[in-house]
Amino acid sequence: MTKRKTYNIFVFIAFAAISYPMIMGILKKDNKPNLTGIVINNVKPDSLLKLDKGMWFSGEYQSLKDDYNNDHWAFKETFVRLNNQFYYKAFNQIRVNAFVLGKDNYVYSEGYIFSAFGDDYVGEDKILSKLQKAKIVQDSLKKKGIDLLLVFAPGKGEYCIEQIEDKYKHPITHTNYQTYITESKKLGINVLDLKAYFQKLKPTTPYPLFPKFGHHWSFYGECLAVDTIIGHIENLHHCDLPDIVWKKIDVVDSSRSRDADVLKSMNLYKNPVQNMKLAYPEVMFEQDSTKNRTRVLTIADSYWYGPVYMGVGQSSFAGGQFWYYYNKVIPSPTPGEKVEVWQLDLKQQIESNQVIMLLYSDGNLPTYANTFIEDAYELYTNPKGYHARIAKNKTIKEFEKQIREKPVLLKKATKKSQDLQIPLDSAIKLDAMKLAGIN
Known about the structure:
Largest sheet: 6 strands, mixed
Order of helices and strands: HHHHHEEHHEHHEHHEHEEHHEEHEHHHHH
Helix content: 40-55%
Number of domains: 3
Shape: globular
Strand order of the largest sheet: 4-3-10-7-8-9
Distance between the termini: 69 Å
Structural class: alpha/beta
Radius of gyration: 25 Å
Number of strands: 10
Number of helices: 20
């Protein structure tokens, strides 16, 4: 009898353990996990089924329902964090796509390590072809009183090369950065080499220019970069811009701003101690409306987001926009609506600025400026061909935008990019072409 009671107790405990997550999922009103960097499907499939009954018979509804339930079960956040904590402690791994741990807890985008050692080198011919087009664009814009500026920004891989694991290290033959700098100078292209500037500061800087748990410049590094960019544009365009200034610097050992952006994406159960002193200048911009008249359009990667949050566009660049990867327009010209570059009149947009700045960090040099240089080159040398091509690709662009804005579709594209080991944009384009009926 005692054995039977014990058996019944174990059955009850097992049943309760299995049922508990389901019960909590029903009782909890909001089961959306608070996780950074993970695409969560927030659209309930039931609402889609009302619009399209065929989803039930095709099996699509069931697939979407499974995906939604997987994203919203009661303990998803807890178990994801515990799983990530296990890999971090047991194997010194971080569960962030394309990021790795280096020595002394430094985190790196693996692509930026490859960039530092030239493993992503695209070749002199490809770089030279792009720069020759950039030179023609620069000369065409100069006739209209517009200056083109190419900025090469430092990435964490090369700047913090000492903390990279030894397995990645080997003799360096060529890098995209070296070829871009050398050939740009030969062609007479306007260049600002922020990478060389940061390397010059490295031995004497009083505060870190890259944080351990961040992917981008430290906030202090961003301030120095912005100050240098403003001064360079003033010399290039013969203008006077509102300066960035600071009199006080807070030095703390807990990151602020974006200085631990990767740490957030690591989604750990318990974060490690941040044993690095970081500096935070209390920045202000010169308040002089007579100086804030040179409109600067910035086409850049994620390294420019920090200066955007700082207010550079409004305070010093006369309201100039930021085109994120030559795609997303920030701030949106239509409030409340996400606008992408392809939806704009490129010629009109370019010529409403006095300076066009292309700023990319070394890890993104294989696709420097995305296709802006090629588009602008065709626009000013063969406008008829440019407009015909843009009209032809409009349907695909519309579907690409739809995929980026719908978590269900974006999640599928993200999985495809991981499975095929291709960039997310390439996976989105493949799905967009499928939706458009193009093989």
